[in-house]
Amino acid sequence: MATDRRTLLADAALDVLADEGMRGLTHRAVDRRADLPTGTTSAYYRTRAALLTALVTRLVHLDQTELQTAAEQFPSIRTADELVAGLVLLTRQRLTGQGRRRSLARHACAVESVRDPELREILVPRENAGREAVRLFLAGHGVEDVEGRTHTLLTCVDGLVFDRLVSGGEVRPEELEGLVAAALR
């Protein structure tokens, strides 16, 4: 039961952060969002640092699951168009619905991690099936410096997500396709 409660609180903290920003992330706000009695969050996570660590750990878990699912949808990418389609799908997921909320929280945590080495360590990009699919595609197409180009391409996609989050503009699929294809070239 404690694990389920911890997950519920981490998910509620993620929602608070997405809606209210870092300043709004308090134990009481998480209690309210989780619809639990006042003091519940602080009973599980005594300090704000502990709460943030739980939130970031949960966020990374959700991101890794999303990337694994994305890679399974495109098990063997053979063409540049297929790779672009997969990256566009991932980008759209990160800009709509729950994906948008997680993206907002992810960027707030990334800024916070500049001053918090423990959070930064949790947030460091990890190996995952999505990254591996991009790496395999680039290697299979004779791209030099596969690691560097994989990093550059995925950083461009992350930057695109960030840009669209802060600009608030709607993202048309054809525009995304053009931007992702340009980054791939």
Describe this structure in words.
The chain has 185 residues and is mainly α. The chain is built from 10 helices and no strands. The longest helix is centred in the first third of the chain and has 26 residues, at 48-73. The protein is elongated. The N and C termini lie far apart (49 Å). The mean pLDDT is 89. Keywords: DNA-binding. Residues 3-63 form the HTH tetR-type domain. Residues 26-45 bind DNA.
Output the CATH topology.
Tetracycline Repressor, domain 2
Q: What's the architecture in CATH terms? A: Orthogonal Bundle
The helix/strand class is mainly alpha
Number of strands: 0
Q: Give the helices and strands as they follow along the chain.
A: HHHHHHHHHH
End-to-end Cα distance, whole Å, is 49 Å
Shape: elongated
CATH superfamily: Tetracycline Repressor, domain 2
Helix content: over 70%
Number of domain units:
1
Total count of helical runs of at least 4 residues = 10
CATH class: Mainly Alpha
Summed over residues and divided by their number, the pLDDT gives a mean of 89
CA radius of gyration is 18 Å
